[in-house]
Amino acid sequence: MSVQVGDRIPSLTLQVMGVSGPEAVTTESLFGGKRVVMFAVPGAFTPGCSKTHLPGFVVQADAIKAKGVDSIICTSVNDAFVMAAWGRDQNAQGIIMLADGNGELATSLGLSKDASAFFMGTRSKRYAMIVNDGVIERLNVDEKGIDLSSAETTLSAL
Ligand code: BEZ
């Protein structure tokens, strides 16, 4: 069962790329006292995520932040090196590329999925959420396609 609107983001330590290597980051520091848009993709550099999902948020980042959003997080079950390289490749400077390398975020949100058919093991479902001070206020999960979790749909909900 996945998290629902009104649930809290679980307390976890994940990674982002720092100036000299991967750095630990807690969900408390990412979400505490902030309004955050977080979206998740099944895999960095995969076609749908690279051609549509992340680029949409890059294009809409300023408009999303202008609606009172403090930060935009892109997360995937990938390591911090891959997430940083993907962010550079996509010019995603305004987006926090959050590495859920062990899949703990996806699993504890109840939003992991079996991608072994693609030789990708256990990954994250594609979703977008709006989180206010650690509490999920909107959650859209795409079981197929990239409609409910797109940047445009998220922007229209803010
Ligand atoms: C994609 O294009 O986003 C994708 C492809 C294969 C597996 C997962 C995602």
CATH class: Alpha Beta
Number of strands: 9
Mean pLDDT: 98
Helix content: 25-40%
H and E string? EEHEHEHEHEEEEH
CATH topology: Glutaredoxin
**The named CATH superfamily:** Glutaredoxin
Q: Indicate the proportion of strand residues.
A: 25-35%
Q: Could you tell me how far the N terminus lies from the C terminus, measured between alpha carbons in angstroms? A: 26 Å
Topology:
Elements: E1 13-18, E2 21-26, H1 27-31, E3 35-40, H2 47-65, E4 71-76, H3 80-89, E5 96-99, H4 104-108, E6 112-114, E7 122-124, E8 126-132, E9 135-142, H5 151-157
Parallel strand pairs: 3-4, 4-5
Antiparallel strand pairs: 1-2, 3-8, 6-7, 8-9
Helix pairs in contact: 2-5
The chain binds benzoic acid (BEZ).
Benzoic acid binds next to helix 2.
Task: Describe the protein's architecture and organization.
With 158 residues, the chain is α/β, with parallel strands linked by helices. The protein has a single domain (13-157), classed as Glutaredoxin (3-Layer(aba) Sandwich). The protein is 29% helix and 31% strand. The chain contains five helices and nine strands; from the N terminus they run ββαβαβαβαββββα. The protein has helices at 27-31, 47-65, 80-89, 104-108, 151-157; strands at residues 13-18, 21-26, 35-40, 71-76, 96-99, 112-114, 122-124, 126-132, 135-142. The strands form three sheets. Strands 5-4-3-8-9 form a five-stranded mixed sheet. The chain has a two-stranded antiparallel ribbon with strand order 1-2. Strands 6-7 form a two-stranded antiparallel ribbon. A hairpin with a 2-residue loop joins strand 8 (126-132) and strand 9 (135-142). The longest helix has 19 residues, at 47-65. The radius of gyration is 14 Å and the shape is globular. The two termini are 26 Å apart. The model has no long low-confidence stretch (mean pLDDT 98). Bound molecules: benzoic acid. The site of benzoic acid has 9 residues, from helix 2.
